[in-house]
Amino acid sequence: MDSMITAAARALAAGDPLGALKRVALRDDGPSLALRGIAMAQLGDHVRAKSLLRSAARAFGPKQAMARARCVVAEAEIALVSRDLSWPAKALDAARVTLEEHGDRANAAHARYLEVRRLLLIGRLDEAERTLAALDPTPFPPASRAAHELAVAGIAMRRLRATEARAALTRAEHAARDARIPALLAEVESAIALLNAPAARLITSGEEKPLLLDEVEALLASNAFIVDACRHVVHHPSKVVSLAKRPVLFTLARALAEAWPGDVPREVLVARAFQSKSANESHRARLRVEVGRLRTMLRTLADVSATKRGFALTPRRAREVVVLARPVDEEHAPVLAFLADGESWSSSALALALGTSQRTVQRALDSLAAAGKVQSFGRGRARRWMTPPIPGFATVLLLPAPLPTG
């Protein structure tokens, strides 16, 4: 490897893409094309970066397997940043195996971290945690250690383990400062700001207040009876009842919890649960049926009793009933949560991350666009959606991981 290639590689490692381009911009050999591709990725031109990396892989040829594998890993990282979640994960895994066979442990580990980040985006926390547990970041350079700790923090935040997340981000900050890469340090600082922003709202006895993730963690460990509107579950430390697939029952549970210790008139429950402005006998009969189902679902945690004007919730063991609500009440909050990372997303990538159909996501995007909350650019398959982050709010509880049910 000649001195210009070495100097360009060092510039990229230090987060100086322009310095790297000055050295290899006019060269078309494999190493130069690869370095130019990485430089263009750091500058934000992802389309050009992918083209250069594919040209580099062809230029290296079949006998230079390790160099080609590095190009695949770089392209996978660009796909992740571009939120191209349909990019073939098998290609990344094959590249990782090649790198491991050739003794390039640092880049093989980087491939693993990319895999973990993708798993986080699509909500597969268990797989992400298992993959991360197999990696020891100690022998790796500072940038890789920072990536490791960012992944640890990302999992911990989604698991609502604030103390663990804070410790991981502290380690990530130290590693990022050692790496002296401004973009990496900015990513760590953004994650710290996210952890220090309100993550939810507490609603109790008609009053609301914002909660940090640490406070959410403490609340979930308390003896309170909690109706969790972020995950659509009802829980007490001893038991969790999921109502995620029973929207009417969850709506009733939330209404009763918000009114506790008082009751809720039947007309109000009908309006909230059935989207009806007036309650007729059919609505009242259906309400009795749904309340009976809710009473059965919550039988070990609380009683739902009839009152003169409606229904009331009475916890069996807890002394307090609270509602844990999203920091922002929005019909399409999960879509906004993904877009709030500041990256551009395709509707297909959002559908994959949300575990729903692309048509459902497109309807949500159209609705948000009509309200001026998101914007798109490009056409057809190249169309991307984005929005500025919601000021002052964390998105952790808008991207919920399912809680265990009892």
What do you see in this structure?
- The chain is of the alpha+beta class and 406 residues long.
- It has three domains: 3-195, Alpha Horseshoe (Serine Threonine Protein Phosphatase 5, Tetratricopeptide repeat), CATH 1.25.40; 201-325, Arc Repressor Mutant, subunit A (Orthogonal Bundle); 333-389, Arc Repressor Mutant, subunit A (Orthogonal Bundle).
- Helix content is 56%, strand content 12%.
- The chain is built from 18 helices and eleven strands.
- The chain has helices at 3-13, 17-24, 30-42, 46-60, 65-81, 89-101, 105-121, 125-133, 142-158, 162-179, 182-195, 213-220, 247-259, 266-274, 281-297, 333-339, 347-354, 358-370, and strands spanning 200-204, 207-211, 225-228, 233-236, 239-242, 263-265, 302-306, 310-315, 321-325, 375-377, 384-386.
- The strands form three sheets. Strands 2-1-9-3-4-5 form a six-stranded mixed sheet.
- A hairpin with a 6-residue loop joins β10 and β11.
- α3 packs parallel to α5 and α5 (65-81) packs antiparallel against α6 (89-101).
- The longest helix has 18 residues, at 162-179.
- The chain starts with a helix and ends in a 20-residue tail after the last strand.
Quick summary:
The protein is elongated, with a radius of gyration of 25 Å.
